Amino acid sequence: MNKKKLLYFILCGIVIGVFIIQPLAITLQIFDIQGDYGSWGELLLTSYQQVLGSWDLDQTITKALFGLFGVTLSIIYMFRQKIFKSNSFQEKLKEIKKLIETGENQQVEFKSTLRWDLRQSKTNKALEYTVAKTIAGFMNTQGGHLFIGIDDDGNLLGLQEDYATLKKPDRDSFEQYIMQLVSTKLGTNFCSNVEVSLFQMDGVDICHLFILKSDSPVYLRDNDRSYFYIRTGNGTRELDIPEALKYINKNLSRKK
């Protein structure tokens, strides 16, 4: 468990217990004894004055108990969040496994690597272009799922070779590199159409890109030229200018 996060929840619990729950409890006690006397604001102010002004042994013990109560509530909330995230992660992982088992189709594509050429054993920018092309194709069609670290047959290869090509060989750097690729090749405004997740399956990391369909045409920029791609079957196809214009007018023109 993250120690900083735990400390944060403990401090929040103390504040909640001593400065929120205790004054409210005192306010209710005063109201119960005195009846409908004064406004709630006045009663609450009196309660805060009592909490802040009394530091004898009995009051200190009372504050400690309320603080402990607040910490307990805070820790319960923290673990509830953790359990909820764990359950959500497991559900998502099940969906991911089903997609992988189904294999490639119009909305699912596998890529062995992002930038490491397995045949030539070196970095290959052309592979990045292929990934960007696939993302653009999904955006221009119906959206879809792109997996990196899986070969065409659905075998899990992992991302270690790709990690090794980055300045910091870790998940965060890999995710940042993908988003930078989307921003550079497709445009910053299309980054919100891509959700990047990394999972460990059978001991290796796999990257999953959930790509949303775009409401406007997405062009891939390369060497001062723009290219338009769509998904057809389980592949990505470039359209020439007449085809692209016809497709855009039919499928991507925003309705006014």
Give the SSE map.
Layout: H1 3-34, H2 40-53, H3 57-102, E1 108-111, E2 116-117, E3 122-123, H4 125-140, E4 144-148, H5 160-164, H6 171-185, E5 194-201, E6 204-211, E7 219-222, E8 225-232, E9 235-239, H7 241-252
Parallel strand pairs: 1-4
Antiparallel strand pairs: 2-3, 4-6, 5-6, 7-8, 8-9
Helix pairs in contact: 1-2, 1-3
Jot down its keywords.
four-stranded mixed sheet; 256 residues; three-stranded antiparallel sheet; alpha+beta; 7 helices; single chain
Characterization of the model:
- A four-stranded mixed sheet has the order 1-4-6-5, sandwiched between helices. A three-stranded antiparallel sheet has the order 7-8-9. It has a two-stranded antiparallel sheet with strand order 2-3.
- Helix 1 crosses helix 2 (40-53) and helix 1 (3-34) crosses helix 3.
- With 256 residues, it is of the alpha+beta class.
- The two termini are 51 Å apart.
- The protein has seven helices and nine strands.
- Strand 2 and strand 3 (122-123) form a beta hairpin.
- It has two domains: 3-94; 103-252, 2-Layer Sandwich (Methyltransferase, Cobalt-precorrin-4 Transmethylase, Domain 2).
- It is elongated and about 85 Å long.
- Helix content is 55%, strand content 18%.
